[in-house]
Structure formats: structure tokens, C-alpha cells
Amino acid sequence: MHPRVLKTFLAVARSKSFTRAAEKVHLVQSSVSDQMQALEAELGVVLFIRSRQGLVLTEAGETLVSYADEILALNEEARAAVTTAAGQAPGSIAVGALETIAAVRLPAWLSGFQGDHPEIALQLKVAGSGELLRKLENGEIDVAFCFDQGDVDQRFVKRLIAREPLVLVTSTANAFGAWKPDLAELGAMDFLGTGPGCVYRTMLDAAFSEAGMRAPRLAVEVGSIGAIARLAAAGSGIGLVPRLAVADALERGEIREAAWPGSDQFASLVMVWRRRRVQPPALRLLLAAASEGFASPRSADVRPRHAVPILS
Predict the structure, then answer these.
(1) Where would you find the membrane-spanning parts of this chain (predicted)?
(2) CATH number of 163-266
(3) Comparing C-alpha atoms, which of 138, 137, 140, 144 is closest to residue 159?
């Protein structure tokens, strides 16, 4: 079973479609079909059956998925081990990150890392949390920087590297009754939020649910923190965001902030990478550097500087 064919098999298994799998592995659909037929012939079993919902794995196919993951991971580990033993140059690293982290936290840190290791070529790819994990699965990136959304499966390793304070932001013309409004006050206000599944949206909904209260009305659902800040400045509603993402707008006086009264007042910033017996030398250097020097000086729990009483 060639690793290239196993990679195609996993793409088909996870997308449940030859067409979508072809896009992921950059092949034409006929090549994907040919590879799967050849794999089934080699193993002497049927791996997929067709249904109204698309392709469905047979029991044999389900069994192969876990082995295919392990074989591909071992293949990568073998390459890394051989490269290390041969004393070759560390190579390159593809870094994935959420838009907020890529724009605010990574530029200076990656520049410093590159200054210390000019022999390592870096790539930075921006995507949402779910897409970052898919890119890790597919080998498109080596490490992802994102906010923690719970446990990852055993194929990955997750490490906490910083805790970023969350704040409520609003326009300068309409602030809060106190520097730390309660959930009852907030429940009557219009909010600006990211889509379901985003860590900030999850924390917003969870806080009201834990308090036995209905979540506030979502005035606008937006796809980026920058858009939330601009809409808040225009008076469209209130946003719950990590302070690091709006620090510049706060300094310019475009928006004001208040403390978030939810039980969890911080977003945990983590890095996630594939579990291997031997990590590539370049990635090992980056993981060590991030573990030692990524913590934010802003992660202390401090009172917001721009909170003001509500304007009647």
C-alpha cells in the first residue's frame, strides 16, 4: 500500500466523495477512482459502498482508516529520523493560525524565531479552527496556533502557551453601567458575534446557559474580530473578543471596553501538532521556542482602562 494511495483513501473516507477528495489531493476524479479500485483489488475487499448520503465506509474500510493514519505518520517520522541522522539542514515549517493570532501575536514572534534560525523557511497559513485541524490531518501545515476548543484526538498533541483576557467592546457613545456589567444587564443588549463553533461565541452562549438565562440577541454575525471592532465602533452592538485583537483600536479611542463577567474570563491560546515518534528538526526547534517564549505580558487579569459609566 503506497503512502500516496493511502493519503487518497483517507481523503475519500473523510469527505465521503471522490470529487471532494480529488480536490483535496489535487488529482482528477478518475485518478482517485482508479487508485481506490486498485487498493480494493490489492486488499481483496470492498472499502466503500454508495448511499444517498454519499460514499460510506464498509467495516473493512473503517478498519483501514486507523492503520492508514498510523502508516502515514510513521512514514513522516521515518523521513524525519533519517534527516536528523544524516545531519541535513532543518528545512521548512508550515505554520497555521487563526486570523487574530496571525495578525497580532505571530508576526513579531516569528520574526524573532527566523532571526535565530535563518536556515529554516517559514510559511504562514490563515484559517478557522476546524480548517486548521483538517490541514494538520492532511499534512498541509506542521503546527496550528488557535484558541482551545476542548480535547483533540490521539493523533495530535496540544500545549497551552498563553491565556488571553476577554473583554466586552462597545462604541464610545454607549458604554456600560459599571466597568464590570452583570449578565442581566448584558442580556438586554444586542451582541455582535462570530459563527457557531467559534470559541468566543461558545463562551458567550455557555455563560448565559450556566446562569440559566437566555443568550442575548445576536444583532450581526460576522466572520472576523476586526469586523466586530468596526461594527462596535459604529454602534451596531457589543462584542466579546480577546483583548489582544482590539488593543490598537482601544489605544486609538475608537471603542471602549468592560470586563467580561462570565465564569471563564480568558481564552486559552494553544499550539497543536501531529504526534510523531520523531519530530522534524525544524518543527522541534519551533515547538521549543514557542513553549519557552510565547506567553503574553497582557495575560494578567487587569481592570480595563477605557471603561466608563453608561450614557443615558
Answers:
(1) none
(2) 3.40.190.10
(3) 144
